[in-house]
Queue: 3 jobs
Job 1
Amino acid sequence: MPTALITGATAGLGAAFARRLAADGFTLVLVARDEHRLAESAQQLKLRYGGAVETLPADLSTEDGLTAVESRIRDGVDLLVNNAGFGHPEGFLRTPVADELRMLKLHCEAVLRLTLAALPGMKSRGRGGVINVASVAGFFTRGTYSASKAWVINFSESAAAEVGHPRVKVMALCPGFVRTEFHDRAGMDTAGIPGFLWLKADNVVAAAMRDLALGRVVSIPDPRYKAIVAVGKFVPRNLAAQVSARIGR
């Protein structure tokens, strides 16, 4: 049985990945901060799909949490989904620097270290995959969040080019607005976001798995957002930043 390790696995895209991969026959390793919620998620997945589910409580914005998950990945995983992340309700000038640094540790350092923990074993076995969850925001300028997701995209492209094995794949997944707990937990007001821009988590995961199988390095899992990113390349960056800020407000 192949093994998949998913960070941020108890809600949103992480939970959707867990459902899809359990249905596909993967043994799961679920990583999240909330031990009680992890146990509940694991029990539900076992009852529904019948596969093995391991839980690993860890806060990836801490050194202890990162070290624990690195160690488990080096024991062997076939698919790593770096999904854990969060957003801030305010711009970076109104956000405590400690909170910004915690975001960078989770979005950048954790993605770097866990990917590097996974790839040597995958290369030696001759198979494996890493999905780093970025965002369409990474193609635009919108504070620390979009900057960190731009890093995830660039890093994933670089890692995919460097890994040099056709059966070891690294991909950045770049969804737009997804119906999850993400915005509520960040205290963000989403009332002004048009309904047609919202995506379903299960659909995003289905597109991601398809694109990974096809060997795509960057996955934008919806035609609407593909068009937005394509148009954005021709819009002056200062204008795109102003539009992004208006949407954010």
Job 2
Amino acid sequence: MPIPNNALVLVVDGRKMLFFRNQGDENQIDLRTEDHDERDDANHDGDLKTDAPGTSHSSVGSGRSSMEETNFKQQDEDNWVKEAAENLKKRALQNDFDHLCIVAPPKALGVLRKALHKEVEKRVVCTINKEMSGRPIPDIEALIVSETKASEPADI
């Protein structure tokens, strides 16, 4: 489905959150930056850990197995994406947008889908599974146009 005029476009990953408005129409997309935010990625996973991974004792015998380490960097990225979902929820409840297009890499898109409010879900017209947060606006526009044209039914 083509992206209508005034549709909100979210481009998000574990570090950046970009909001655009389509100032064009369904035939000619024209994204304008509305809001953006970037997470401070100064903490590395090793800086966040304070101890070695835990171990558990086997209930039978004397065996021990180590537990999987928590990936704090991934947790930070997931929380950042959930923050984007919360931002969308606030905007949807204020009727800030009627149509939404989401562009995010696979992992971020999965976290975002789980965190979306029902009011936001109703307004999603397009989701694109691709990392685009570091790309210029014309590249994002071209991707959206190519993805929405590909999903249109072919003329008979």
Job 3
Amino acid sequence: MAETALRSTTGTTAAATGGGAGPTIHRLTGTHCPAPRRVPPRRPGPAHRPAPPRPPRHPRAACDSSGLAPRFALRLVEVLAGLRPVGQLARHTTHDGYRQLARLASDGPLRRADRTTRPRLAQVHECAPGPGVLEVCVRVETGERHRVVAFRLERHWRTEQWQCAAVEAR
């Protein structure tokens, strides 16, 4: 008669024969297997993810709705009137544009001796002669006199930001 070894609950092996004394033998079946341990899915912790890139500003869309040219024109007129320092527009101008702006600001074409009335933008005319270029002409009211300020905005090739490349005031 063939004897088969089975594992008991106590960890000993016994011969499965027709009878005999010894430890109780339990046959292992699939129903006695413990349930598989469920591992919760790993949740990503606070990883260092780079911020999604911002879409570049586009002045053509801004001119129609939010008014990029009038906002820049107001700051430019405030610099020419002496109400704002020239350095505040340094990062928004090219090197040539900044030199022109600094020269115009020192001459003070919009400065008034009394400084009681602030210059006011009357009309803003915009023209886009090509892609990435915006030319603007602004009529400025300074009390009884009217002046004209013209400037050119160009899109920087690498940063996609708009910079003032040329300024003229009369």
